User: What shape does this take?
Amino acid sequence: MTDVESGSALAPKWDAAGLVTGVVTDASSGELLMVAHLNEEALRLTLATGEAHFWSRSRGSLWRKGETSGNTLRVVEVRIDCDQDALWLRVAAAGPACHTGARSCFYRRLTPGGELEMIGELGEDGAV
Amino acid sequence: MTDVESGSALAPKWDAAGLVTGVVTDASSGELLMVAHLNEEALRLTLATGEAHFWSRSRGSLWRKGETSGNTLRVVEVRIDCDQDALWLRVAAAGPACHTGARSCFYRRLTPGGELEMIGELGEDGAV
Assistant: This one.
């Protein structure tokens, strides 16, 4: 194993756009809530404030999750993977994590026929 | 909401490299095992065979997880996120998911001091 894999030094492997993948799960239920990206500043702010920050690739700007919706994510623990190009944020969510109003962004499953099928009801009540 | 977000048509939003993010969790325990990437062919083969396939960005080649190690991932369910640029693979793992021998690639947490701390022991026995 390399030092990056076994060592205690944080050395994120930023991609060409300066990003790593961020996987967000509910710290209580373990449910996968969302996937987003972090640049160095988003990681710094996440660690400094305890609130999840990301880099929005579509808007090209730093983003504190919930800054407009109020649905913030309080970070309980951050883990990193073997080659340090993905972060796992275990969080306590103040509300639905998805901008659609769903509790999780992953509210559809693929069927054997290759279509998408809704899991539960999608709505503002976070039923999904 | 857009059709991509609410519809039943599978329309992955491939990035500039033709990839979407794949988040892999243990279907029983819910544990996050690994993060990898899928191109269109990897997704097709994953759905057709029920075994997780990825695109290796470092090797630049298609990859059936476990093809050399034997540590395959049988896919129990595939979900997709709101904007269809991330897949969630819920799997039954035949062995450690990480090439280091750890059960999960996420065997280190970030400490308040900004260092990495091992969770459990890292070893071939998949203790982590």
Notes: Chain A is about 10% helix and 35% strand.
